[in-house]
# Entry
Amino acid sequence: MFKILLIDRCHFTRAGFEAWVNHSDLFSGHFVVTGVNNLFLAREHILQWKPALVIADLSGFRQEVREMKQSVNTLNVAMDKLNKETVKITQQNALNAKSSNGVYLLPGANTPARLNSQIGTLRMSLVNVAANADGTRATLRIQGESNDPLPAFSGTVEWGQIQGTTESYQGVNVKNQLFPAPASTLAPSDVDIPLQLSGLTPEQLGFIRIHDIQPAAQ
# Structure
């Protein structure tokens, strides 16, 4: 049995070819023809059915091929972003596991971290990170995890670059500044603190560390 796979967009071409070969008295041998109009189905037929001959008119699949290439490119970009994010999350977790004072947030990790402070357990994350004329602007989002509103408080934000590895590292070009936060009226509480991180672009910014969270003096 001689198996032929016909790949063509046109229904009439497939039907006509199948009828001509399968029911023709011109051929002494036994032929089996299968026609498909989908490249994914064609691939499966080639792998599973193992035809002896493949006849393909690929001109009708140009748009599909372009769409497949675009989908593959989009998937590659998404996978690259996910891989970089995974590396940042791993680094952030490693830094916080070693930290006895404060919590690290790494740009690109897109993952919150928890800090046990004098005003309770706080969930901190970094959002809206973007470059500006002075370096980097970002928003520090602080969320309380208790059923009580957060009081007014202050803290210190430290930022810089990381030299070395998460096992053995040191901060480079480190700067810090105090920030105030107003009291909340709702619970659980969310507080957004605008940050201006001067001297480093988002690409250069290695870490942000939040520490010394203290209730405001009455």
